[in-house]
TrEMBL record:
The modification 4-aspartylphosphate is found at D58. Pfam families: Response_reg (PF00072), Trans_reg_C (PF00486). GO terms for biological process: regulation of DNA-templated transcription. This is Two-component system, OmpR family, phosphate regulon response regulator OmpR. GO terms for molecular function: phosphorelay response regulator activity; transcription cis-regulatory region binding. Residues 9-123 form the Response regulatory domain. Signal peptide: none annotated. It comes from Paraburkholderia phenazinium. Keywords: DNA-binding, Phosphoprotein, Transcription, Transcription regulation, Two-component regulatory system. Residues 138-237 form the OmpR/PhoB-type domain. Gene3D superfamilies: 3.40.50.2300, 6.10.250.690, Winged helix-like DNA-binding domain superfamily/Winged helix DNA-binding domain. Residues 138-237 bind DNA. It comes from the Bacteria.
Length: 251
């Protein structure tokens, strides 16, 4: 195992008793602490009393399904890592899940070793994101209707304060530090997670999509985080200049 010396804790939410038993046995032998729920209806209540490192959440369950449970978590501001399990062969659940805030997904059936590898990757990425416990001594940055406070890691708009997730804050900070520069997806991965970052291009696109939901009046026609076709993204603080009309400056 490559996980840190501290015991990794996983909460498995799945109505399949046989799968729960199999995974509990395998993961336990890997030194991972596993707790289980047979449905997602009480997931939020469980998390209020016990916080795992990662939630492994089945999509298709009776009652409250996995996507609904995930949506409730993200709407409440809970940024706990979530891996979705899906038995469908198409990409619908995967795409919807990523857009709703899932960190990863695995298609059933799967090898338990793959789950361990995905958990390791998520925890590595999470450790690479700066901790809120170490506020940055830097003046707030104003752009458009917004002001980002680096010390409190909050975003203000129209006299309202928005709480950003750690990933949203890190991505917005990268864009601010490289304003008006076209950043390729590979460069974004490097800036966010280091040179050994193992995020996919798709994962970066999902993170940008989520941040656009926070910043843009109309996310389908973004003005602050603009797409440079075939190259990547550019942050335009005044929201006026179109990236496609500017010379690309790669960082």
């Amino acid at each position: 195992m490559n996980l840190e010396a501290m015991t990794t804790r996983i909460l498995l939410v799945d109505d399949d008793l046989e799968l729960r038993t199999l995974l509990c046995d395998y993961l336990g032998r890997q030194g991972i602490e596993v707790s289980t729920l047979h449905d997602a209806g009480t997931l939020q209540q469980r998390l209020e009393h016990a916080r795992p490192d990662v939630v492994v959440l089945d999509v298709l369950m009776p009652g409250v399904d996995g996507l609904t449970a995930l949506g409730r978590l993200r709407t409440s501001g809970d940024d706990i890592p979530v891996i979705l399990l899906t038995g469908r062969s198409d990409d619908v659940d995967r795409i919807i899940g990523l857009e709703m805030g899932a960190d990863d997904y695995i298609s059933k059936p799967f090898n338990p070793r793959e789950l361990v590898a995905r958990v390791e990757a998520i925890l590595r990425r999470r450790r690479a994101v700066p901790s809120p416990a170490a506020p940055e001594q830097r003046k707030p940055f104003a752009f458009g209707r917004f002001k980002l406070d680096f010390q409190s890691r909050t975003l203000s708009v129209d006299n309202r304060t928005l709480i950003l997730s750690a990933t949203e804050f890190a991505l917005l900070k990268v864009f601010i530090n490289h304003s008006m520069r076209t950043l390729t997806r590979d460069r974004l991965i490097e800036l966010l997670y280091g040179p050994e970052g193992d995020r996919t291009d798709r994962g970066v696109d999902v993170q940008v999509w989520r941040l656009r939901q926070v910043l843009e009046v109309n996310p389908s026609t973004p003005r602050l985080i603009q797409t440079v076709r075939g190259r990547g993204y550019v942050f335009v603080p005044d929201g006026e200049q179109h990236a496609t009309q500017q010379p690309a400056v790669f960082s």
